Amino acid sequence: MIKRIAQHRYVPDLSHEWLVKATIFLLMLVNFLQVGMIAFAASPLMGELGVSPQEYSLSTAAYAAVAVVTISKQRWLVERIGWRNYIHASLLIFFLGCLLCYNSTDFTSFLIGHVTMGFGGAAFMAGARILVTLLPAGMSRFQGVKIYAYGLTIGMALSPFLAARLFIDASWNGLFLILMGLCVLAAICAYFCLPGIPSKEEVRSQSHPYFLMALATGSFLTLYALDSGSYEFYSNTVLVSVILLLGLTSIYYFIRSMIRHHHRSPLLSMKRIFNSKKYRSGILVFFICYLIMGSNSYFLPQILEKGLGFGWGTVGNYYGLGLTSMMFGVWLHMKLFPKMPNGKKYFLVGFFCISSYGLMMANVSSSTDLQTYILPAIMLYGLFGIFLQGTAAAKSFSELEHDSTMFSHAQQFKNMVSQIGQSMGVALASIGLQWRTTVHYDVLNNHVASNDPIYQKTLAQVAAQYAKHADTVSAQKMAFSWIQSLLSQQSTLLAGIDYFTLLFFVGIIGFVVMLIQKRLN
């Protein structure tokens, strides 16, 4: 059996390169479609399944924790079963998870399906990037990087649009049907082009169950504490703080163990990859980007729907349309970067885009036009990620790409950071939205009093309109309910303005830090 497997080559021949590129594209497309659709469709999914926000936060934390552990084991598994078997196994597990979610009717079945998807699909992104290195160095590999980037951007742009259309025009189950179909296509492409040679025994990295248990426990406890903290922090402050402390301690133990056991071919060569200053700086940029992406994916739909009153389908259409700017950003970055590889200018453009996006969104009002104002702002947001992450990716791994093991470990750790960063972003955004909405609602509600002339005037005017269709008592009640709903809407909008103002200052700080760098590679 091993002899037969060993007949396959480590790299595909020229006739199979297009299949490798197709596999890379499909893996990235599946990954970002499922992340984007499930994140954007969180509210209607909870309604369809009868899931509370607290329960949904549990599924999010469990998915991210499983994803982190799965990514950490990627190289270990590939060394033992080969790329083709690894990708096929991942796609099969992900397919089964989608099938469970497709047939789920309650929270328990959805949770099992979602976690199963995490086991299979979490390493798609890291795996796709490492598959690029199977292509011959030169133009073919550069094309592989471009296809990798286009799979990411197309998946992100399509996800809100598809989610909105499926929920409105078809059924929410359609989300998972699309993912299952793409899994089958990816598996067919992978079968004909990926190598199946396991690495030699002496170069295999080693794993330890205690270290993995520490990573799994730490990831879950940390993310669960952050996710559930938005609902239980004030009522169970001590409990949430203890869970968070235990989680962070477990993650610290895992990282410390990986560094101390670097001479034993560890699961992740943390000491060696962090010896690269470029990599350390790049990881910080990636973490900031994923934190912003996670928080924005939660805030923006909430503000557009609940704060500005746009329909959920309309939000999905324009959100997806705005994110198409990422594809233009990839094209522009790929065109300019080989000719002008100095990274400073690209970082400046990225931070300028996110600060401009924050400034524009911080000035929205109930009369803001979606097409002429918010759509251009979303386009700026799409460009921010390309110029920051694309540049960081090109620079961070330059010192590690000649060692396949170190490159793989570096990609794995970066994607573990992405899972944690995005989940933390969603959790912090949830806490922030709840906190700032409550603060603004209390301030606005103080004006709903009998001695406030503006409130009395508004109540009388609205009641007069309702009185045309109902009796006086009912008209007064309906007018009061209308004012209460308006207060809730305005509180959400003001909370969003607070967030986008913070985003503006983050962009300004990043821009200034990059501007004063005398030498930035």
UniProtKB/TrEMBL annotation:
How does this protein sit in the membrane? Multi-pass membrane protein
Q: Which UniProt keywords apply?
A: Membrane, Transmembrane, Transmembrane helix, Transport
> What sequence ranges are listed for the domain Major facilitator superfamily (MFS) profile?
20-521
Where does the UniProt annotation locate this protein?
Membrane
According to the record, the segments passing through the membrane are: 24-44, 85-105, 111-135, 147-168, 174-197, 238-259, 279-298, 318-334, 346-364, 370-388, 493-516
Q: Where would you say this protein principally sits, based on its record?
A: membrane
Identify the Pfam families for this entry.
Answer: MFS_1
Domain of life where this protein originates: Bacteria
Protein name (Swiss-Prot/TrEMBL): MFS transporter
